[in-house]
Amino acid sequence: MKSFFALLVCFISMPGFSQDISSQELLKNAIAYHDPNGNWPSFNDTFTFVMTMPTAPKRTSVISINLPAEYFKVTATKDTVTTTYILDKGKCQMQYNGKVLDSLKAKDKNMTCDRATLYKNYYSYLYGLPMKLKDAGTNLNDTVEKKTFKGKTYLVLKVTYDEAVGSDVWYFYFNPKTYAMEIYQFFKTDEHGKEKPDSGEYILLSEETLLNGIKITKVRAWYYNKADKYLGTDTLVEG
User: Fold this and answer.
1) Residues 6+ away with beta carbon under 8 Å from 88
2) Model's pTM, two decimal places?
3) How many domains does the chain contain in total?
4) Does the first or last residue of the chain, that is N or C, have fewer Cβ atoms within 10 Å of its Cβ?
């Protein structure tokens, strides 16, 4: 009996089974899993993903992110149309089917430099997770929750943002044994900052590949929180 209790104590004290892990410890462990060598600040790579949706043609996007050089480029092809947005140290360029556009012609194509910045922030955020959770303006909830989602138990980190950064509330679901990030989810908020339960989306993450020594998700399946409605899947096809 004594040996049984000793084994039990050992088991519950193993990484991934702690009842008292802090949000900072969870994030540290998750980053250690995804970016063990601290490569994210020097990230410089190009990758391709394909977005498939039930009611729309597939879209193929080629993304280049060079953080040290402050360079971002996304080229998206859908049907016969290819659009390109480039931000090079803040300088914006837009192309439509390979032709460089001035601001007036870009506006006719519904393309703007504001959208270029939006894309840069969006893709840098998603592909930089969980490392991006250390950015200024990011607020980690003090308490790490244990939640069951689709029959599997996760350590869940709740994240809010300073008003200047964003108003959505995010939840990040980590494998309790490996600390791999396997789901993220967000909700919109009302004028009082309260979550709207039927808003937002959740994203199921599966498979991994290495980019710049970082474990990056290969497959992301998107769903509305409301009624679990499927939106689409983007799949990394080239690293």
Assistant:
1) 69, 70, 71
2) 0.89
3) 1
4) N
- Report, as ranges of residue numbers, the positions in the chain whose pLDDT lies below 70: 1-19, 238-239
Which tokens in the block code for residue 82? 């290819």
Structure tokens at 3: 């040996």
Beta-carbon contacts of 228 under 8 Å, excluding residues fewer than 6 positions away, are none
Domain assignment present for residue 10? The answer is no
Residues in CB range of 25: below 8 A, 6 or more apart: none
**64-108: per-residue pLDDT in tens?**
999 999 999 999 999 999 999 999 999 999 999 999 999 899 999
Close Cβ partners of 82 (under 8 Å, ≥ 6 residues apart)? 75, 76, 95, 96, 97, 98
Non-local (6+) Cβ contacts of 4 within 8 A are: none
* CATH of residue 157: 2.50.20
What is the Cα–Cα distance from 18 to 15, expressed in whole angstroms? 6
Q: How far apart are CA 204 and CA 97, in angstroms?
A: 33
Which helix (H) or strand (E) is 4 found in, with range? helix 2-12
Give me the domain span that covers residue 120: 29-238
Q: Which of 98, 72, 69, 93 is nearest to 83 (CA)?
A: 98
What percent of the chain shows pLDDT beyond 90? Answer: 87
Nearest alpha-carbon partner for 132 in 237, 43, 44? 43
